[in-house]
Each structure stands twice: as structure tokens, then as C-alpha cells.
Amino acid sequence: MSIESATGLLGGLGLFLVGMWLMTDGLKVAAGPSLKQILERWTDTRAKGLLAGFALTALVQSSSAVTVTAIGFVNAGVLTLGHAVWVIFGSAVGTTMTGWIVSAVGFNVDIKFMALPAIGIGMILRLTAPGRSRGAIGEAIAGFGIFFLGVSVLKDSFEGVAAGLQLDAFSGSGFLHYLAFVLAGFGVTAMAQSSSASIAIALSAVSGGLIGIESGAAMVIGANIGTTVTGVVAVLDATSNAKRVAASHFVFNLLSASIALLIMPVFFLTLSWLKTTGLTLPGPAMTLAIFHTLFNVAGLLVIWMWADDLIAWLKGLFVSQEENEARPQHLDQTLVDMPTLAIESLMLEMRRLSGIVLEGSASYLNDPVRKESMLRSRFIVFESLADSIRSYAATLSEARLTSGLPDALAHLLRALQHCNAIVHEMRNAMSFVATESRMPSLVRERVESYRNALVALMQDSRLLDDQVEADWLGAQGRQFEDGYQATKQFVLSAASRGDLKHLAYLDDAMREADLMRRIAHHVVRSAARFKAARDALTMPESSSSTADVNVADEVIRNE
């Protein structure tokens, strides 16, 4: 191969990738909000998810962009695993549009009359409207022109290479021959982070006569597998659900590639037979585009039948410690028909949930700098486990509940509300505790002392004991109310003496102290509701449970 041919191949591939980059980035900027809205609103069914993935990939000409976006939305909790996988499957079919565009336009239209004007018009729009939607569209148009200019250079370079080579070196058949081209397609795609690059090379090489159409088909299969590398890289430090989405992408593309290898002999034998009938067949590039679409659609039809099983299997992968903790350990659906036992199991799960909230909150308040990520993981566990408890309680409420059980269930749900309030207030507290260092030392020490008292309360095992004394809860409530008033008076006195140089310090100290008071309020109330639920079960005709809640209700009051 001559230096001229080598530089032509390298330059053609570079033009193709630059064109893809400009086209994809331009369309993403121009339609960025639409991309997010479509993925958020139009993925609630299988069909909608498929259509969204297909349309967006066909629009931006990058399955990697759609895949990474879908993974990002799953990572952020915007999309569920069940919705995201269909976007991924639709995107896999949408990426076949690159082959259709290249084969239908790139090899059948004079590039000079399409690519060069597109580059000029696109850059005019880009230069006259920088930073605006019109400029982004111009960038995409210019990228479209450069894209096809690269295709033209690749095609011409491959024709030059083919003319100077013994083509017998690239001909052949058999498993190892086709495996080599599958690996070539995979390698180019993995390095370029674009299956479109491999597909364009395969189409150009086949059209230029450098390789046979079967070898080009094998390279397309490799490109189909190689495009999963982008998703794998994107989830190296992502959530478990995001990793499952990437796994679904890999499974689908591997399935499609397996189907492609199985149907490839039949596909080309059928073409050979059709040729003998005198039927006019599409050119090699168009034939590869048809083959690419065919095996991806076949993969989609197979995955459609087994999707529920696939999703269930994926949920068992990459299980994190948080997910293990978030799984209910005591909620047994078979006990719903025996409400007394079901309430007991609900109480055990609520005790476990309360322990998670109190332990995580106390650890963070003890060491805010190093425990922030830990607390966020506790929040994730809480939200999932709380949803399970609510669902179980809703099912239980529909059963026939004997005397005392309705009150116990109501108290447990109120305790859950207080746990939720603790989590909400802790989210707020994270921002104030982080700014504590800028307060004057005397004020900071007073606020820390009040916070440390809350930590000690959260670590007290009596809070998780449903036999806790109501008088002790009342004493704790009064202690924190009195402590708040004393802290507030101390801070206001410091401000009046001029110890606080900036009013922002006064505001920070008062707001943090108030947050600690509100958290203590919910801690005591949650324990009181938990005790009231136990009393409702053991003394269903007694009013003592209500009295115990009133104890906490009286001693923790808003100012």
C-alpha cells in the first residue's frame, strides 16, 4: 500500500469522525432540551421507549450519545431500568440508519454537489449565530458535509488500495477468516468510540472491491458488538441500575451478533439464488445496510419475548450493599391474611428502618466531612425500604383488622412520616454543618454542643425499644426544647456584644440550631409513635397509647 493510499485512508477516517462529531454535537445542542424531554416523558411503555431510542439515534446519528444519556438518566433516577432498556434496544436499531445514509447517498451522489455546499452553508450559519440554536444547526449541517466528504475519501482510497493489491490475501471463508473481520470491526469501533466509523470503513472497503461482501458483513457484526464499549466505560463508577442498563446493551448486541452469524450464510445464499433469477439486486453497500438492519430487528423480536426475564435477571446483577440493605427482611406477603402477625413483621421492619436513619444521621453529625457520602447512601436505602413498608401497609390495610390493629397500623405509618421528616431535615442540615467553620469559636462550640446532644440521643438504644418509658421521652423533648432556647439566647447575646462580625454568622447559627431542634422533635415523636403502636396491640381498649403520644406532643413545640 502506497503512502498516498495510507494517508488517504487516515485522512478519510479523520474527516468522517470530525463530521460525525460536529453533526452529533450540533444536533444535541439544537435539540438538547427535546432529548431530555423525550427520554423523560415518552418511555413509559415498550413501544414508546423503542420509538424514542430509534428516533433520537437516527436524529443525532450516534447510538453512543443516546446510550450514555439514557445511562445518565438512570444514574440520576429519572429513568427506571425497565424503561431505559427499551430506549437502548431502540437505539441499537436506530444506529443502522448510518449504513442506509452512507449507502444510499454517499456512494450514489456526486459529493461535490452535496458535501461542499453543505460545509459552506453550515459554517455560514455557525459563524452568524454563535451560541444559538441556528448556529448549532449550522454546525450539524457542516458536519453532515464533512461526514460525506470523509466517506468519499475513504471510498476512493480503498479503490486505490484494491487496485495495487493481490486481493486473494483478503479473500477466503471459514470461521477463522470471518472471526478476524469481526475482531477488526470490534477493534476499530472500540478505539474510535463509534460503530459508524467501522461501518463506513466496511462499506467503503466492500464498494472499493478490497474485501468481499461476506467479510464486510463480518466487520459490521464486530462493530455492532464494539459499540457496547462506550456504555461499559460510562458506568465504571455509576450506580448499580446504570450498570444493568449497560449490561442490557451488551446482551442485546451480543444476541443480535449471534443471530447475524447464524443467518449470514442463509442471507447470502438467498442473494445468490435471487441473482440467478435475473432480479436486480442492490449494490454491496446497500446489501450490507439491509443485513445490518435485518439482524438487529431479529434481535429485537427475540428480546421482546424474553424481556421480562432479562430484566429480572439484570436486577440480580451488580447488587450493592445499599440494595441488599434496602430489601425488606421481615415483610412477608403470606402473613397479610394473618394481620396480627403481619403487624408484628411491620414493626420489626420499622425498627430496622429507624435504626438505619438514626445510625446514619448520628455518624454524619459526628464527622460531617468524611461521612457525607455514607449519609447519602443511607438516604437511598431509606427511600427504597420506606416504599416497601408503605406498599406492605397499604396491602395490610385492606385486610380485616381486629381491635387494636388499625390504631397500631396508623401509629406505625405516623412513625414512618417522622423518619421521613428526619431524612428531609438531615438533607437541609448538611449545608449548614458544612459552613460551621466560619462561625466565631464560642458560637461554634455552643452549636456543636447542642448538636452533640442530638447525636447522643440518636445513639440511645431506648429509641428503638417499643417498651420505652413515656416519661423518658418527655424528658428528652423538654431537654432539647430548653437547649434550643439556651443556645438561641447565647447566640443573640454574642451578636449584641459584637462577637459576631457578620449577621450571616448569626443566621447560620440560628438556622442550624433550629434544624437540630426539629430533628430531635421527629426523633422523639417517632419513638413515641412506635411505643403507641405496641401499646395499641397489647392494650387495645386502653387510651394509654394516645396519652404517650401526647407526652411527646406537648414537650416538643415550635417556638
Helices and strands, in order, run as HHHHHHHHHHHHHHHHHHHHHH
Unreliable stretches covering 5 or more consecutive residues? 162-169, 543-549, 551-559
Give the mean pLDDT: 79
Which radius of gyration do the C-alpha atoms yield? Answer: 33 Å
What distance separates the N and C termini?
85 Å
- Please bin the fraction of helical residues: over 70%
Strand content: under 5%
- What is the SS-derived class? mainly alpha
Characterize the overall form. Answer: elongated
Extended strand count: 0
Question: What is the number of helical segments per DSSP (H or I, 4+ residues)?
Answer: 22
Major β-sheet annotation: none
Topology overview:
Elements: H1 3-30, H2 32-41, H3 46-60, H4 63-75, H5 81-94, H6 97-106, H7 115-128, H8 133-163, H9 175-192, H10 195-207, H11 213-226, H12 228-234, H13 240-276, H14 284-315, H15 321-326, H16 339-366, H17 372-397, H18 405-434, H19 441-458, H20 470-496, H21 503-538, H22 544-555
Helix pairs in contact: 1-8, 1-10, 3-4, 3-5, 4-5, 4-12, 4-13, 5-13, 5-14, 6-10, 6-14, 7-8, 8-10, 9-10, 9-11, 10-11, 11-13, 11-14, 12-13, 13-14, 16-17, 16-18, 16-19, 16-21, 17-18, 18-21, 19-20, 19-21, 20-21, 20-22, 21-22
Give a structural overview:
This protein has 22 helices and no strands. It is mainly alpha-helical. Helix 16 packs antiparallel against helix 21, helix 19 packs antiparallel against helix 20 and helix 21 packs antiparallel against helix 22. The chain is elongated. The protein starts with a helix and ends with a helix.
